[in-house]
Design goal:
Helices cover about 50% and strands about 20% of the residues. It has helices at about 5-10, 20-35, 70-75, 115-130, 160-170, 190-200, 225-230, 250-255, 260-270, 275-310, 310-355, 360-400, 400-405, and strands at about 35-45, 55-60, 65-70, 85-95, 100-115, 150-155, 175-180, 205-210, 240, 255-260, 410-415, 430-435, 440-445. The protein has a 5-stranded mixed beta barrel with strand order 1-2-3-5-4. β2 and β3 (about 65-70) form a beta hairpin. InterPro entries: Exonuc_VII_L (IPR003753), Exonuc_VII_lsu_C (IPR020579), OB-fold_nuc-bd_dom (IPR025824).
């Protein structure tokens, strides 16, 4: 019976059919007319129940058809199936009588190239890349220590829970603000754009655009051109965490940093408390080492200065030796002078004796007497002058001598190592010290280290 005769028979008969009869006849008709055909289209709504069968829709830009791919045939397919994949299938057209659904029973499948969504993805990617929106020069560094971060995602999704969990564990001091927006569906893209614009004006240190995994259709709002351009216009550093590790979206190329998962995005922006504490500890150890090195250098410098410092007793000994030398030189000079005067006197007497004039001799004798009188006075005056000078030098030396200071009632305090105490801070309560007086030493103990300074007169 040909197709035209079958349709004519059905139109002329007035039989009343039940729904089951109608679906059965329609199924027979479809299977007889389309016993084995090839159909090309894009996979969508792929389902994998535990039975091993595959159920999906095959669509193009204008229509779609439900498909069933039973386990005995589906097991022979070796390629990875996912929504958006362009495939070519072989099967028979049939009707599922229980629901009255028109469907294609598939027994073979092969790849037919990327689907329409994939083609649209690649086209937009190439367009934006040509405009330079993927350039490395546009990428901004993420803040090292952020204080306030905006999270653009669905408030009820798993992504926001993962992000909050990571920040709570690594950096609970960072403020998180969720900017709620739908992340799936036809109306999601405009609302994601509004959320990006609002978050960019809110003064966040960084933004996370996050969504959990899903099919290409589920993630498609993040492949829309309006979302990509809104993300590129953000002045705030951004992190894209859309889908799982294998998922790639246009936002991943636009954002400053791509994170494979929402949890990874949170780890990128949350400084680890333990790492920060370890860094502080390292800095503390370096500071202590620097202080020890500085103290060692200053101690060595102090030792050098101490070795160069001469004790006042050495200076006094040198002055005393100098005084003895001056005294010996004075006595030697006096003896030489007396010898010279005596020798001159003897010469004069010899000349007088040789000449022996009468009157001249008397004059000379008179002059000699005068000179003999003047000489002791001159010697006495000279000795007195030099003794006065010597006394002045001795008094000057006594004034600058520490022993004279000690004689006026002052003392010098030394610690147990014999070092003089130069400051109040050098003495500690209970410390044993020694006091040097003008006529000996006293052993003392410090009872208190008073903070208030006492003003003492410089002179008695």
């Amino acid at each position: 019976m040909n197709d035209d005769a079958l349709f004519q028979r059905l139109t002329k008969e007035r039989d009343v059919l039940s729904v089951s009869q109608l679906n059965a006849r329609a199924r027979s008709l479809l299977e007889d007319v389309f016993p084995q055909i090839w159909v090309e289209g894009e996979l969508s709504n792929l389902a994998r129940p535990s039975s091993g069968h595959l159920y999906f829709s095959l669509k193009d830009s204008k229509a779609q058809i439900r498909c069933a791919f039973f386990r005995q045939h589906a097991s022979r397919v070796r390629m990875a199936l996912s929504d958006g994949l362009q495939v070519r299938v072989r099967g028979r057209v049939s009707l599922y009588e229980g629901r009255g659904d028109y469907q294609l029973i598939v027994d073979s499948m092969e790849s037919a190239g990327d689907g329409a969504l994939r083609m649209a993805f690649d086209a937009l990617k190439a367009k934006l890349q040509e405009e330079g929106l993927f350039a490395v020069e546009r990428k901004r560094p993420l803040p090292t220590h952020p204080k306030r971060i905006g999270v653009i995602t669905s408030p009820s999704g798993a992504a926001v829970r993962d992000i909050i969990s990571v920040f709570g564990r690594r950096a609970p001091f960072i403020e998180l603000v969720v900017v709620p927006t739908p992340v799936q569906g036809r109306d999601a893209a405009p609302q994601i754009v509004r959320a990006l614009q609002l978050a960019d004006r809110s003064g966040f240190d960084a933004l996370i655009v996050a969504r959990g995994g899903g099919s290409l259709e589920d993630l498609w709002p993040f492949n829309e051109e309006m979302v990509a351009r809104a993300l590129a216009a953000c002045q705030t550093p951004t992190v894209s965490a859309v889908g799982h590790e294998t998922d790639v979206s246009i936002c991943d190329f636009i954002a400053d940093v791509r994170a494979p998962t929402p949890s990874a995005a949170a780890e990128l922006l949350s400084p680890d408390q333990q790492a920060m504490l370890q860094q502080v500890e390292r800095a503390h150890r370096q500071l202590r080492q620097c202080l020890r090195d500085r103290l060692a250098r200053e101690h060595l410098r102090l030792e050098n200065l101490r070795r160069r410092l001469r004790h006042p007793g050495e200076r006094l000994a040198q002055q005393a030796q100098r005084l003895d030398e001056l005294e010996l030189r004075l006595k030697r000079g006096m003896r030489q002078h007396l010898n010279q005067v005596g020798q001159r006197s003897e010469r004069l007497q010899a000349r007088l004796q040789a000449q022996h004039p009468g009157r001249h001799l008397a004059l000379l004798r008179q002059r000699l007497d005068q000179l003999d009188q003047r000489l002791p006075r001159a010697m006495t005056q000279n000795l007195q002058h030099r003794r006065q000078r010597l006394d002045g030098l001795a008094q000057t030396l006594n004034v600058v001598s520490p022993l004279a200071t000690l004689g006026r009632g002052y003392s010098i305090l030394f610690d147990q190592q014999g070092k003089p105490l130069r400051s109040q801070a050098d003495a500690k309560p209970g410390q044993r010290v020694e006091a040097q007086l003008s006529d000996g030493r006293l052993a003392l103990r410090v009872e208190d280290n008073l903070d208030a300074p006492h003003t003492l007169p410089l002179l008695d």
